[in-house]
Amino acid sequence: MIRTFLLVYLVTIILILILVRTTNADFLDSRRFSNNFLKVATFDFSDKSTANEGNLTQFFNVSAVKAGGFDVKTLRIKNEGSVNKSKLKVSYFYRLGSEVFCNDLNLKILKEWAIIYEGKLSALTLNLELNGKQNEDFIFILSFPENMVNNSACSFDFILEENSVNELFSDTEKLENFVSNF
């Protein structure tokens, strides 16, 4: 009985499949649109020396610093992609050495001769908007306090994180730094 039922069921399915024509409408759906524009953008920035536009990896590398002294470095942010507007976040990351010594260092950042950051290096978090394809030049002044810890060194990074305005694209660069007073 069950065998007969299965045989009838199988024959019915086979007849239905033979008699019913297949259609590709279940697998393909297409529409035509006109006057559409698709633009693909690239997003990349680089940290360059302002003197020769060479790539930077090490930024401050200072030994035997004196109390009350300072060092000056310049940085050029260059838009290497096709996205015109972006946001740049500059932050500090302690790596190793005397954290007390690092925390005593002061930083001043200038853009177009205007001070955009002035304070402790360890408190650095700076958010900027970058426009267009032009270069963005910055001056970093690292100063050493009068009462700094003796025979100390520290290593830290400047982290440069750039995001497109719509935050679909991002790029991160790291500038390594070393400072010692011996």
What descriptive keywords fit this protein?
mainly beta, 10 strands, five-stranded antiparallel sheet, elongated, 182 residues, five-stranded mixed sheet
Q: From the alpha-carbon coordinates, what is the Rg to the nearest angstrom?
A: 31 Å
The count of DSSP E runs of length 2 or more, i.e. the number of strands, is 10
Largest sheet, if any?
5 strands, antiparallel
Structural class given helices, strands, pairing?
Answer: mainly beta
> Within the largest sheet, what's the order of strands?
1-3-8-5-6
H and E order: HEEEEHEEEEEE
Beta-strand share of residues: over 45%
User: Helical segment tally?
Assistant: 2
Nearest-integer average pLDDT: 83
Q: Helical amount among residues, as a percent range?
A: 10-25%
What is the molecular shape? elongated
Question: Which spans of ≥5 residues are poorly predicted at pLDDT below 50?
Answer: none
How far is the first residue's CA from the last residue's CA? 98 Å
